[in-house]
Amino acid sequence: MEIKNVTVAGGGVLGSQIALQSAYKGFAVTLWLRSEGSIERTRPKLERLRGIYKASLEALKTDPSAFCRGLTDSPDVPPAQLDELIARVDAAFDSLVLTTDVEQAFGGADLVIEAIAEVIAEKEAFYGSIAGALPEHAVLCTNSSTLLPSAMASFTGRPDRFLALHFANNIWKNNTAEVMGTAETSPASYRAVVDFARAIGMIPLELRKEQPGYLLNSMLVPFLNAAEALLANDVADVETIDRAWMLGTGAPLGPFRILDIVGLTTAYNIVAASPAAQEPGSTAARIAAMLKARIDEGKTGVNAGEGFYRYN
Amino acid sequence: MEIKNVTVAGGGVLGSQIALQSAYKGFAVTLWLRSEGSIERTRPKLERLRGIYKASLEALKTDPSAFCRGLTDSPDVPPAQLDELIARVDAAFDSLVLTTDVEQAFGGADLVIEAIAEVIAEKEAFYGSIAGALPEHAVLCTNSSTLLPSAMASFTGRPDRFLALHFANNIWKNNTAEVMGTAETSPASYRAVVDFARAIGMIPLELRKEQPGYLLNSMLVPFLNAAEALLANDVADVETIDRAWMLGTGAPLGPFRILDIVGLTTAYNIVAASPAAQEPGSTAARIAAMLKARIDEGKTGVNAGEGFYRYN
């Protein structure tokens, strides 16, 4: 099946990135938003992304380290071609259609990427509201990080054409896209989404079955939890634990640098939701308390200027 | 306290490396071995290490990537100075005293590093056999990976002067040394061992309390286990899981490359010993079966030429 018209639902951090990236790579993109207020809040995000895309391509003329895997195939692109790509960013930005109209947004969609709030009731209402407008052949993807597609498949009325396409933040740089179907997803829909992910400059990571947390978070969460436990149990300090990981594995970042990027609030929400954290005196409870103390001081990570480390 | 005379007990993989490294950095090193047969088996290991040390220093004359953190402080060393260091390797090798004599090995020791088999009864017999020969001030370290020093402290007769100093394999390159005391270890002994580790070119990683697995393995084991679970549950293939980790965290190696280096037999022993692996149908049991199948085919990792990947 051929995908030309892509509709992204939701203009949050990821929704806006997916929309601009897809348009940049030549797709006709509509961004469906819930209200006029959402449209007004999404425009500056898209403006900001346009600036980042153009600045990254401009920087690549003189600095190979400015290479973003989602923007060009390699760091070696002649300046004239980079100028064409910069013009393409503007054209992509201008081509985006932002609308609250369900018929306009979904009536001609080949592919829908849902990136709305992680609330199951909202997902249900959303999929119910678009079902009547969608063309028969349209494939639906959810970008949900925390809900499994099988929990939403029945809402869509087309479980064979429904799966998860999970992006990382800053998709023009961190261009992985985890592709995960349910037991009902048809192979044709799965392949179409893998191909689409590749077509918009992503590296598709194919999951053969449902897995909460997909691949990356399935490994990252227990790893970060182990590091948090060492700190919460006062086995060593932040710098020593990070150094042990970096020197022992050659990784560029230790767990606490990664936690500062992920954000301490997200890390806290994950551990606080675990059954072990409800037992006073458990390691999980100590981890939660340790993270909460930092969060209460405003040290929530890189974005706040301080987390486990200080940033300028 | 000043450390001059270092005695290493055991001529295995780590014992021989610790002995040569300590001599290379200027300490008077005695290697105590259990029998004449052990001495004969240890000599070729030391010869091989001498060759590696000299070849690495020689290569550094023309190739900065040959830099080994345990051999020189930086990659920028003038050739004449490298020639001096190469001569120092020979001098260090020649200075090593190999003996089975307890009085000769331990009678003048300031520091003992025990690197014998990971069998508690052997540790007990060893510490008991040397107690009478040791000078009062001598500090004892165990390099044990799997036994906690508190489980051995009573064997030594000097629990205040006993702690763990845990090396990584290939210490001239992977120069971390985890320093871990028990509740009884005196601060002075702890500091003396930290200083010694630094003096032989290691980066000491200071643990404030006992932790099974120290720092690195405390993080590595749950991380590798999570990756093994993804494979054993057929969520994705080896290459995809590795790619998810490398692209998502910027790490140079994914979990299955690391497992090939660690060795599948070690990974199998860890998971097979867990209570969960005894339950048929559990993820741990599936992981154990998956590793065992590869081990039975001789695919035990890099050293065998094949593990999860093939090596030439």
What would you note in describing this structure?
The first copy, chain A, is α/β, with parallel strands linked by helices and 312 residues long. In chain A, strand 5, helix 6 and strand 6 form a beta-alpha-beta unit. Chain A has an 8-stranded mixed β-sheet with strand order 3-2-1-4-5-6-7-8. In chain A, helix 1 crosses helix 2 and helix 11 runs antiparallel to helix 12. Chain A is built from 12 helices and 8 strands. In chain A, 45% of the residues are buried. Chain A has 2 domains: 203 residues, Rossmann fold; 88 residues, N-(1-d-carboxylethyl)-l-norvaline Dehydrogenase, domain 2 (Orthogonal Bundle). Chains A, B: It catalyses: a (3S)-3-hydroxyacyl-CoA + NAD(+) = a 3-oxoacyl-CoA + NADH + H(+). Chains A, B: It comes from Adlercreutzia faecimuris. Chains A, B: One of its GO terms (molecular function) is (3S)-3-hydroxyacyl-CoA dehydrogenase (NAD+) activity. Chains A, B: This is 3-hydroxyacyl-CoA dehydrogenase.
